[in-house]
């Protein structure tokens, strides 16, 4: 898993992150009716990116997943965590949990 990096999401990445979340849900067998109903909940837009701490995991420059934190320590929570289907089961999720944010994890948000 060389070349993996975690960086803050960019405002314009919302549509791509939304589609990634839907692909990840689909991987686990959720059908089109569920995905259509869940689309609004899974939508990541520029407002979400600016109001939450959303981070993108990249593998050799390609997006492999993302996660987002809402709230503030100690009541902050992991709100989103999705991986591209090809990245599931390959340690990316663990890496995102271990990293959580650039630098030390904020108090109260230290584990997944």
Spatial strand sequence of the major β-sheet: 1-2-3-4
How is the biggest beta sheet arranged? 4 strands, antiparallel
Helical residues, percent: 25-40%
Number of strands: 4
Shape: globular
Structural class: alpha+beta
Rounded radius of gyration (Å): 14 Å
Unreliable stretches? 103-108
Can you tell me the number of structural domains?
A: 1
The CATH superfamily is Gcn5-related N-acetyltransferase (GNAT)
Q: Helix segment count?
A: 4
Distance between the termini: 20 Å
CATH top level is Alpha Beta
Instruction: Give the H and E element order.
Output: EHHHEEEH
- Mean pLDDT across every amino acid position: 83
Strand content: 25-35%
Question: What fold name stands as the CATH topology?
Answer: Aminopeptidase
The CATH architecture can be given as 3-Layer(aba) Sandwich
Structural features, described:
The protein has 112 residues and is an alpha+beta fold. It has helices at residues 14-27, 32-42, 46-51, 92-99, and strands spanning 4-8, 53-59, 62-70, 77-83. The chain has a single domain, classed as Gcn5-related N-acetyltransferase (GNAT) (Aminopeptidase, 3-Layer(aba) Sandwich), CATH 3.40.630.30. It is built from four helices and four strands; from the N terminus they run βαααβββα. The longest helix is centred in the first third of the chain and has 14 residues, at 14-27. The radius of gyration is 14 Å and the shape is globular.
